[in-house]
Amino acid sequence: MSPSQTLEDESHPSITAVNRRIQRLSLHLTPLPPFQPSPQLHMLECAKAANKLEVDKASLQCYMRGKNRELQEKVINFFESRPDLQTPVGIPMEEHRELCMRQIVALVRDAKIRPFRYVVDDPAKYFAITEAVGSIDVSLGIKVGVQFSLWGGSVLNLGTKKHRDKYFDGIDNVDYPGCFAMTELHHGSNVQGLQTTATFDPITDEFIIDTPNDGAIKWWIGNAAVHGKFATVFAKLILPTHDSKKVSDMGVHAFIVPIRHLKTHQTLPGIEIQDCGHKIGLNGVDNGALRFRSVRIPRDNLLNRFGDVSRDGKYTSSLPTINKRFAAMLGELVGGRVGLAYSSVGFLKISVTIAVRYSLLRQQFGPPQQPEVSILDYQSQQHKLMPMLASTYAFHFAAQYLVEKYSEMKKTHDEQLVADVHALSAGLKSYMTSYTAKSLSTCREACGGHGYAAVNRFGSLRNDHDIFQTFEGDNTVLLQQVAADLLKQYKDKFQGGTLSVTWNYLRESMNTYLSQPNPITARWESTDHLRDPKFQLDAFRYRTSRLLQSVAARLRKHSKTLGSFGAWNRCLNHLLTLAESHIESVILARFIEAVQNCPDASSQAALKLVCDLYALDRIWNDIGTYRNVDYVAPNKAKAIHKLTEYLCFQVRNIAGELIDAFDIPESITRAPIAMQSEAYSQYTHHVGFQ
Q1: Which ranges constitute the DSSP H helices of 293-414?
Q2: How far is the C-alpha of 517 from the C-alpha of 632, rounded, in Å?
Q3: 352-401, pLDDT tens digit by residue?
Q4: How far apart are alpha carbons 358 and 362 in whole angstroms?
Q5: Are 178 and 229 in contact (CB under 8 A)?
């Protein structure tokens, strides 16, 4: 066949298709020649190298460090200097509990670091300390939280001057180890349903603490099984009356109850303490169960900031209803949620650092007759880890923002800020801890069989972190609080009310977001447009506003036949999706702001790249929502997918610099598979090879 004939024949579409089919079949019959790198491949490699961002690691590290890094380094250096205080792999539960107690005492008395002094006056410093001690041993971090934030914080936040004067020094120097006895066997999330009672006896001027049934036993109480000497007990305050009811229930209040003798450490009369035993994780924390049998405490042991009882049994409060007093009490306890959100980001940083560093070092397979390649060069590994690395950065800045808002709230006591922080902490704690829990498993899988070795930490990190999704508020319950607040804000918007700071975008742009998508911008697919922060944030907020409008309509519809509770339950998954969407919008807004505020140009470029990956990966993961309402046209969706893949690759190119910017010492990651300096030598030594 002559070339001219071929060209002439191929002008017919049917002949072109036949020739193409013959070519494909011939590839099955004729083996390909051995792989030879082509000039085009070399050009591609050069292009990859040329496109890699140059990151000033020191500047990025400085921007990420935060204000309290020196204090954290002091904590870490102290424990590194004390081998007797380091937690060995596989330590038995009883030894672990005693070690944790020695660790917290040494932190306060030997290192002279006093976390309790920062709980109210400088929360950012307190959270920085808890993050540092949690990186040493997660059980230690939780024990610090129980002692200073929960037990100590309840005294400071719910009590008055007489309580601070009496208990501050003992809590501060750990002479008074204490517990936070809220959860009961039958009631965890529903705190208003607690059954423990505190009945006032006007004759003796005492409260009588009682556990009326087995369901009211205080359960999972940290510090109770072994070390606690006091407990802040949450119970219904019962007052005697002279009417036909004879008693009046004033709602849940907090009481200081001694549970062990200060000197002999013997359990006090009327108190029964049992050990909750071995747990999935956090076995350095001694969780116990408490039962009270007519335990008498002085009237002054009522933490009376929001409600008090006089000598003659009269109740007074500045807040008029049980619900308002209850809300005020819980509002003062949001610090625990703030701390969990902040600490969860620390877990994510450690696990991502181990997984990424391993993936950079580990080589497996490659082109024929050529060296093996890093497993992070595989697209599948990049898609596992690079969006996660981007999320870690996003969460870092969101957690910083949450701590700043919480600190401002503690200083100003502004009512609107209190409400804002309450909802924000609920949402971020829920979203971040759920994401981190899933990511810990993904990181383990990304490290293959070596990730299963206990010495490489994923097992302990995953098990210790798992409960973060439950305590200080079950994540599903917390997301419902966020959704409820969003619906309240939505209602206020259309009744002319004001919106709180976090929900400003609903006030500013609700009409825009709820209108039909612009058919022109829905088709824009240029890289500059897709990487524009305005497009990204508008897309996130549009989704949230659509979800809010639609769930409000569904609730109105179903309330007519099912009632408010039934309607809420019918729409529950919709409500949870709404809450998560809103929190993602908040996180992205904070990330964009952090990128814009970065003073170093190279660091800003790196953060912009990571921020774009975070935003576009989220949009692509929910592309069906955007397509269903024509917010994104088909070609634009395809462009988002391609750009997300490209950004994954670009972030992979600077992954080493990005994890180094977390500034986590190898002594903290403590995973031999991730140690750059000695590669696998420590891993082989661990199992006995020399």
Answers
A1: 322-331, 335-361, 379-412
A2: 9
A3: 999 999 999 888 888 888 888 999 999 999 999 999 999 999 999 999 99
A4: 6
A5: yes
